[in-house]
Amino acid sequence: MQTVQNTWKCVKCGYTFTAAPPPPPTCPSCKEKCEFVDVSCYTPDCAGTGQDPRLG
Q1: d(CA 46, CA 7)
Q2: Taking a C-beta distance cutoff of 8 angstroms, is the pair 8, 24 a contact?
Q3: How far apart are CA 35 and CA 10, in angstroms?
């Protein structure tokens, strides 16, 4: 079984990374405690990037 990788975006600094589980509560980039938004895209609208520019 394949693990689904989601693209997560920090709402404070905009840093994005790909991971299967939800991200840690502290952003690896800005080192702030922040919320991460799942900006993964599974439609052809994303042009194969895996990230939906309309989200977050």
Answers
A1: 12
A2: no
A3: 6
Q: Which two tokens stand for residue 51?
A: 């990230």
Q: What are residue 7's DSSP bridge partners?
A: 18
- How do the pLDDT tens digits run along the chain, 56 residues long? 556 688 888 989 999 888 888 778 899 899 999 888 888 876 666 655 556 556 55
Question: Phi and psi for 46 in degrees, rounded to 5?
Answer: -90, 0
Quote the pTM value: 0.68
Q: Looking at residue 45, what DSSP letter applies?
A: G
Q: Domains of the chain: which residue ranges?
A: 6-46
How far is residue 38's CA from residue 56's CA, in Å, rounded to a whole number?
8
**Residue 33, token pair as written in the block:** 């405690």
Q: How far apart are CA 8 and CA 15, in angstroms?
A: 8
